[in-house]
Amino acid sequence: MTLKSKEQYIESIGKMKTEAYMLGKRIPDVTKNGFTRLALEGIGQIYDLSRDERNAEMLTRGEGSGRFNVYCSIHRSREDLVNRVRVARLVCQNTGVCTGSRCCGWDALNALWHTTFEMDSRLGTDYHKRLAKYATMVQGKDLACAGALTDPKGNRALKPRQQPDKDVYLRVVEEDRKGIVVRGAKSMIGGAVGSHEIIVQPGTGFSEDERDHAVAFAVPLNSEGVVQVVNAQPGGEAKLKDSFDKGNVRFGSSEALVIFNDVFVPKERVFMCGENDYAAEVVSRFVLLHRMVLGGCLAGCGDVLTGAAALLAEYNGLSRQMQDRLTEMTYLSEALYAQAIGAAYEGKASPSGAWFPDQLLANVTKTSVTRLPYEVQRLAEDIGGGMISAMPSELDLKSPKIGPLVEKYYRGTHGVTAEKKLRVAKLVESMVAGPGRLGALCLHGGGSPAAAQMTIRQLSELESKKELARKLAGIEH
Ligand SMILES: Cc1cc2nc3c(=O)[nH]c(=O)nc-3n(C[C@H](O)[C@H](O)[C@H](O)COP(=O)(O)OP(=O)(O)OC[C@H]3O[C@@H](n4cnc5c(N)ncnc54)[C@H](O)[C@@H]3O)c2cc1C
Q1: Of 84, 187, 327, 462, which has fewest CB within 10 angstroms of its CB?
Q2: For ligand 1, is residue 255 a contact (CB within 6 Å)?
Q3: Which of 279, 294, 311 lies at the terminal end of a domain, its last residue?
């Protein structure tokens, strides 16, 4: 069995000595920096949950010595897709944060599983064999893989070939018998700093004269030429300190601009190189999974926020008065979950054997994900009162001079200390406006809201719906 513990995982990431920068300086050790450590703890929690026998059915695949983490698996059935949504909810309930990379790497493996199979069947390439070997390696070593699609894209109104700087879409700059050299970057890559590997896919469809950009591959994040710039999240500086002001005191998330400065990729790790007709296929399969999974993620984070709001209501002596609003929060999270489960349940197998969710329902889920969690946030802030946006810090509470006064005026009902109340309020603050805010996850994760809307429009089948209405209204064609 290859299931790393959280400690083994964190140690293995530390040993990689990746070239990562934050706030203008190189991070000497990503396992020690307060900000990145929390992100590693979040991903690390997946490792620990997976070793817990109670979660074995949900979080592992394979038998005996061949058992591996579900995050490195290919979805082989409808049940696997449904499980995927359940896993997302479980992990978000336990961490309260986005633990991308592992989920994006999971999506990338599945999207490429399908696309490389299609390419090999039609073009006679051997990408699928390479990918299968790579997947076995990742499973065997229990590696965390980031999944990278998003190019910096420059001027969005221009096509990749029209960009003044071609590197704003990652591309192949050299190719020989041994492999390729790639240049460019991928933006906002979830959990890159806590990942062993990065699986890179094309970010959009490309025309014949944009073939250089149609590339998919995987490299370790400490490969020569790979540089990460870890994003500064709003309120992220609180995470650098050992203080409950950070809100979520146990876990965090991170994203990074991952730059590829002429990085060599050996041939066996290249899964697409110039097949521009297949680039859009990888993107659509990746986002299909991601748009479904987000329903599970946001339901799980919504559960945490609902619990925090219920505690604040209790501490303020308002449990009874807040029942309707808390019920509404539960409804909103369950609605997201139900949509994601529906998208999974209506999924289908692709010829590669990998299963994918129903396209329309996955995009409906994503659209709800761009709206409903904002209402969950609003209700949590409403229940918590103004203190969610205006409260003293831990330093004030611990100050010998003003601490007792903060205690006196922030104390809750029935002997609840000011510290308890502030801790919960700061958790809410971080999830609505701080580094763990739900909005970061839900609006653009898996593509912009407009992209999901466009797919819904394409799949609306208005003509057949008009026909239904005509029949019932007794109208002839
Ligand atoms: C917290 C977080 C984690 C993320 N993690 C990952 C990750 O792990 N891997 C990854 O690959 N990506 C990741 N992303 C990136 C995410 O997938 C993108 O943000 C998303 O696809 C939108 O792309 P964009 O940010 O470039 O915005 P854009 O695509 O530029 O969208 C901005 C706005 O412009 C509109 N727009 C764009 N182009 C046009 C056009 N031509 N005409 C008209 N309107 C247009 C859009 O509809 C939208 O309203 C993450 C993002 C976030 C916020």
Answers
A1: 462
A2: yes
A3: 279
